[in-house]
User: Fold this.
Amino acid sequence: MSTAPSPRAAGRRLTIAVALAATLTLSGCGYNDFQRLDEQTKSAWAEVLNQYQRRADLIPNLVETVKGEANFEQETLSRVIEARSRATAIQVTPEMLDDPQAMERFQQAQGQLGSALSRLLAVSENYPTLKANQGFQDLRVQLEGTENRVTVARNRYIEAVQAYNVLARSFPTNLTAMIFSYKPKAGFTVANEAEISTPPRVDFGTQGGR
Assistant:
């Protein structure tokens, strides 16, 4: 002879059923995917910042080395110093990922710094004693490696943002995005996408006399 479940047991079963339904619903609507892709995006962005910081940290030693070269183009040197100052003055916050204008300002500053560095290293080809300076050559090699790592990190960030934004804009996961306020993240504009597709060249060893 069967007995009806107690109210407490029935309540536990109802709670489990509701929790299971909620889990399946959230999973089916992309909630878990949002969490995963959000973390991937943050991790990729942190690596971009890490490589930009590495580049910025190399510049003071580069500048001091170049200052030791008599008659070096002061305008070129000043542009590097000023560009680094502007790039490092921008306050980077987690909110920047959701602010296209802030991201654009950040990328412009970093792009200007990259261009200024490329110009300085190109000009250095006109100074034989500077080219023969081992310390300067070591810094060039480090900068070249850093520029390559910056490019790799930026590309990974672009891919992570694209995956997140597709989820945020596609149906039915866009409904989940609306409910939980998951806004598309700021990526790169068309202009700087073209720029980063060909990273600044640092090794100008074959362009002497330019």
User: Anything to note?
Assistant: Residues 14-27, 192-210 have pLDDT under 50 and may be disordered.
